[in-house]
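Worked example 3 (structure in, sequence out).
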């Protein structure tokens, strides 16, 4: 069969990274089938275009995966494909929780011929074989012989053939610049951020999160060897194409078992498999100095920290009391000392939030080492404890919010402010944190650091604005560049003319000697 795996666009921005599930299922497909991949974020298509593609390419089976926020688009695409007579199977967190919706068993229209519940590593090959025989079942569930749920072990992880996969659609370097940039340093003709998992599962059970329910609280890891080999493969490909590969370890909590994370990082270093990487780690696990040393030494550049709130009452409400706002600054300083920076994620609209929460949060953020703050709204995702609590309390204003996805819009009433006020807080957070003044401040606060770090922070901030904040279109970018012209010209001047050594605070050590060439792209900008 010719199989198409499709991930819909997220409806807000071009995503910076492809989705792992597509590559994983491609690698787990039984031999004898050809698998094509389309990520709607990189290759946008509407319903008519995808239907045409399926006809032109003579596709026999389509697999669609989607988060809740993309499910309406996923259903529209699925409907268009099914109308051509081709079977559609769906998987991922949303249809796992609401399989009846996808199968039209809840009174609504049917969108999928079959759904895969939960982790599909073991059920995908069965689905493909059944579809090839024309015997596709409606529901595929990972269960053992006794009908008990079985989580796949990651010890036998498939080799994803990164050396040969067509990654053209995921190159972040504009085509026109490729030839020229191939000659810069070790080569920047391509730049890709590749998702790699080293383990699955998180036992913490935060109230708004689907992970503990979906992946279970049993944590499973790949072998160090298999992760190291994957990094080596990515490094080799980057070298071959005179480009760069950065890795996003998509584990929900990369250091959930600190001992094991340290052993993995040591093996990465020993094998020379360092690439620039980003990972998600909760703040409570970043107290260990040796861990942070190993993060830095193994190529870690950015850590995504779900801080959620600076208010302990909010954190307690959502079962994330293990986050201690009092230690956020210390954690970030510890990382920054090793030139590792943080993507700090905040949620507004929590039950104890009142108006002004964005400014209160920002006033703390400004005292921390520069990073990438991001802001979202508390969202009741299906099957989470949060959804159930709000439903019982009659507080859901859009109980099926996914049927009409609206970016940055609440689906329930917060307790101590209105929905409109919560929306205004998120807008304020983004606008202030990414204003030209805030960007200039971030660059200045690293004045004692090499130029490369400052350029990196600046570019990362510009790009992050583009990833999360609805800022599509070339004109919007031109405007942002114009607004930040002072900082840009300051950095360019330093790159061209260099600058005198300056004392590093607080010990007044000289940080570096005169700098000649820029290291503009020496760090990852996740
Ligand atoms: C990496 C990641 C991201 C990346 C982007 C996604 C990417 N390019 O990979 C970033 C960091 C940008 C991100 C952002 C967001 N994310 Co996110 N993210 C993840 C994360 C940590 C890993 C995803 C992953 O690759 N998992 C590993 C793969 C193997 O698992 P999987 O995708 O579930 O696939 C398996 C099965 O589901 C199934 N399957 C999946 N698809 C299909 C399709 C078919 C046909 C079949 C048969 C099977 C199948 O088979 C796979 C193998 O077992 C997950 C949590 C998690 N652990 O999954 C959250 C998660 C997906 N994110 C989530 C959310 C909510 C978001 C945000 C909305 C958060 C926010 N408020 O900003 C944003 C949305 C951004 C956007 N604009 O789209 C939720 C989604 C829940 C839901 N019901 O939709 C998750 C589950 C985490 C959570 N907190 O609950 N995210
Ligand atoms: S720590 Fe992160 S992954 Fe784990 S349950 Fe909480 S929000 Fe989800």
């Amino acid at each position: 069969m010719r199989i198409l795996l499709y991930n819909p666009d997220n409806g807000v921005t071009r995503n910076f990274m492809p989705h792992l599930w597509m590559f994983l299922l491609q690698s787990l497909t039984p031999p004898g089938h050809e698998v094509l991949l389309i990520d709607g974020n990189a290759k946008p298509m509407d319903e008519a275009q995808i239907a045409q593609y399926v006809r032109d390419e003579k596709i026999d089976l389509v697999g669609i995966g989607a988060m809740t926020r993309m499910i309406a688009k996923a259903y529209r695409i699925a409907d268009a494909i099914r109308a051509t007579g081709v079977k559609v199977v769906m998987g991922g967190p949303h249809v796992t929780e609401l399989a009846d919706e996808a199968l039209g068993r809840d009174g609504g229209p049917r969108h999928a011929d079959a759904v895969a519940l939960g982790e599909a590593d073991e059920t995908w090959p069965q689905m493909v074989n059944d579809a090839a025989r024309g015997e596709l079942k409606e529901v595929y569930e990972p269960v053992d012989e006794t009908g008990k749920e079985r989580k796949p072990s990651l010890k036998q992880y498939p080799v994803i053939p990164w050396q040969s996969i067509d990654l053209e659609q995921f190159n972040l370097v504009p085509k026109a610049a490729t030839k020229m940039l191939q000659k810069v340093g070790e080569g920047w003709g391509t730049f890709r951020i590749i998702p790699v998992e080293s383990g699955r599962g998180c036992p913490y059970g935060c109230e708004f999160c689907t992970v503990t329910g979906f992946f279970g609280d049993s944590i499973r890891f790949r072998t160090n060897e298999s992760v190291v080999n994957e990094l080596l493969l990515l490094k080799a490909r980057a070298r071959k194409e005179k480009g760069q590969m950065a890795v996003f370890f998509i584990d929900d909590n990369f250091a959930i078992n600190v001992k094991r994370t340290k052993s993995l990082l040591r093996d990465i270093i020993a094998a020379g498999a360092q690439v620039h990487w980003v990972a998600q780690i909760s703040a409570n696990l970043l107290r260990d100095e040796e861990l942070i040393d190993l993060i830095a030494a193994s190529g870690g550049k950015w850590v995504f920290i779900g801080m959620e709130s600076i208010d302990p009452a909010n954190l307690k409400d959502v079962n994330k009391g293990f986050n201690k706002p009092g230690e956020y600054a210390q954690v970030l300083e510890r990382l920054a000392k090793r030139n590792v920076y943080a993507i700090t994620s905040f949620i507004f609209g929590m039950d104890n939030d009142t108006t002004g929460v964005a400014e209160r949060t920002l006033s703390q953020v400004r005292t921390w080492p520069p990073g990438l703050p991001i802001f979202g709204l508390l969202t009741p995702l299906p099957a989470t404890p949060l959804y159930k609590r709000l439903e019982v309390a009659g507080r859901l204003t859009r109980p099926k919010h996914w049927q009409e996805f609206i970016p940055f819009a609440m689906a329930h009433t917060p307790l101590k402010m209105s929905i409109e006020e919560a929306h205004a807080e998120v807008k304020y957070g983004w606008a202030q944190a990414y204003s030209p003044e805030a960007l200039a401040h971030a660059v200045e606060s690293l004045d004692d650091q090499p130029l490369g770090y400052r350029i990196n922070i600046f570019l990362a901030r510009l790009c992050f604005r583009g990833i999360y904040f609805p800022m599509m279109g070339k004109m919007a970018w031109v405007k942002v560049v114009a607004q930040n012209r002072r900082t840009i010209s300051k950095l360019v001047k330093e790159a061209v003319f260099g600058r005198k050594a300056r004392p590093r605070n607080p010990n007044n050590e000289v940080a570096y000697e005169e700098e000649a060439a820029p290291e503009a792209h020496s760090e990852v900008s996740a």
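Notes: Residues 10, 12, 15, 17-21, 24, 63-65, 67-69, 89-94, 116, 119-121, 124, 195, 197, 209-211, 215, 250, 252, 376, 381 surround cobalamin (ligand 1) (CB under 6 Å). The first strand starts at residue 2 and ends at 7.
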